[in-house]
Specification:
This protein has 68 residues and is of the alpha+beta class. The chain is built from 2 helices and 2 strands. The chain has a domain of 47 residues. The structure holds zinc ion.
């Protein structure tokens, strides 16, 4: 072990930049922004899976378009 390895750092899953580990409220992300990016990404994904798809098990086309 080297003396330089006292600070734990890892890669931010969102942007790939080195992120501090200790004392980081947004870990494993480097910042709040990256945390929100990742969170919104999987929320969006979860929403699609638990949405219309589950009824038939197949993707369905939108029959109604509202406000788009
Ligand atoms: Zn980041």
């Amino acid at each position: 072990m080297t003396a330089t390895g006292t600070k734990k750092q890892h890669k931010c899953p969102a942007c790939g930049r080195p992120a501090p580990y200790g004392g980081n409220p947004f870990r494993p992300f480097c910042s709040k922004r990256c945390k929100m990016i990742d969170l919104s990404a999987w929320l969006k994904e979860d929403y699609c899976i638990s949405g219309e798809w589950r009824e038939t098990g197949e993707p369905v086309e939108r029959k109604e378009k509202r406000g788009e």
